């Protein structure tokens, strides 16, 4: 086969490959803090019907000034369960500082109800590094501390891939990529399917709820949405 024929074979092969690629769906990005068009809105500042108490029953957190606030009635979880997701959540620790370390504005965002990205007032406050704001709790400290002052709104944008079963039947690690206030704090951090640390979990699960933790501090949450990654 001469060069021209080889070139034509190559061109037709490339065209076939391009044609086989599915067209990406069209998603309208959000503006002025609004979610993108394909997002599932979990809390819009008014409606908490997509949430329930961690043990079942009505979610009893107070809604005030378009935010849900921890009030000692227990952690809450989504009624729907998710696997791999892009999650956006905004949170604020109390403006009045009480306590120190882990007792200062403590809460958490749990993926699948088991993997926690820590919420904490870490502004000029010391604690163990894998327990401060932006940490994959008990496993990985944030790359940097970008915490805002107490009472100020902060954002988490989380890309989560759950551990999955590999071809050999063993757990294949998942990962966290997290931006806090627009700054990268977790960069493809491994999420093991098994753990023997203090923040232990075992086995793998294809889906699970999103959980917001009641740790006894009046932390607020708003503008929560999720995009399942397929």
Any overview of this molecule?
The protein has one helix and 15 strands. It has one helix spanning 3-20, and strands spanning 40-43, 51-53, 62-64, 67-69, 76-82, 85-92, 107-111, 115-119, 154-161, 164-165, 171-172, 174-180, 183-191, 208-212, 220-228. Strand 3 and strand 4 (67-69) form a beta hairpin. The protein starts with a helix and ends with a strand. The strands form three sheets. Strands 1, 3, 4, 6, 9, 12, 13 and 15 form an eight-stranded antiparallel β-sheet that branches. The chain has a five-stranded antiparallel β-sheet with strand order 2-5-14-7-8, with no helix packed on it. The model has no long low-confidence stretch (mean pLDDT 90). The protein has 230 residues and is mainly β. The radius of gyration is 21 Å and the shape is globular. Helix content is 8%, strand content 35%.
Strand content: 25-35%
Shape: globular
Q: Provide the residue-averaged pLDDT.
A: 90
Span between N and C termini?
Answer: 43 Å
Order of helices and strands: HEEEEEEEEEEEEEEE
Outline the low-pLDDT stretches.
none
Count, helices? 1
Gyration radius (Cα, Å) is: 21 Å
Give the number of DSSP strands. Answer: 15
Helix content: under 10%
The secondary-structure class comes to mainly beta
Largest sheet geometry: 8 strands, antiparallel
């Amino acid at each position: 086969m001469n060069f021209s024929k080889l070139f034509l074979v190559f061109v037709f092969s490339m065209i076939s490959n391009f044609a086989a690629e599915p067209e990406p769906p069209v998603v309208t990005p959000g503006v002025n803090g609004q979610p993108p068009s394909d997002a599932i809105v979990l809390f819009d500042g008014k409606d908490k019907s997509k949430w329930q108490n961690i043990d079942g029953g009505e979610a009893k957190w107070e809604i005030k000034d378009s935010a849900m606030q921890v009030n000692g009635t227990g952690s809450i979880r989504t009624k729907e369960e998710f696997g791999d997701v892009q999650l956006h959540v905004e949170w604020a620790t109390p403006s009045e500082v009480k306590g120190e370390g882990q007792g200062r504005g403590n809460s958490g965002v749990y993926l699948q109800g088991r993997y926690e990205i820590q919420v904490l007032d870490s502004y000029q406050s010391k604690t163990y590094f894998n327990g401060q704001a932006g940490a994959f709790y008990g496993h990985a400290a944030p790359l940097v501390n970008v915490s805002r002052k107490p009472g100020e709104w902060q954002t988490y944008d989380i890309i989560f891939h759950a551990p999955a079963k590999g071809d050999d039947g063993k757990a294949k690690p998942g990962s966290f990529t997290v931006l806090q206030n627009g700054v990268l704090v977790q960069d493809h951090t491994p999420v093991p399917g098994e753990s023997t640390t203090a923040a232990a979990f075992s086995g793998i699960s294809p889906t699970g709820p999103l959980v917001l933790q009641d740790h006894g501090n009046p932390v607020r949450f708003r503008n929560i949405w999720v995009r399942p990654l397929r």
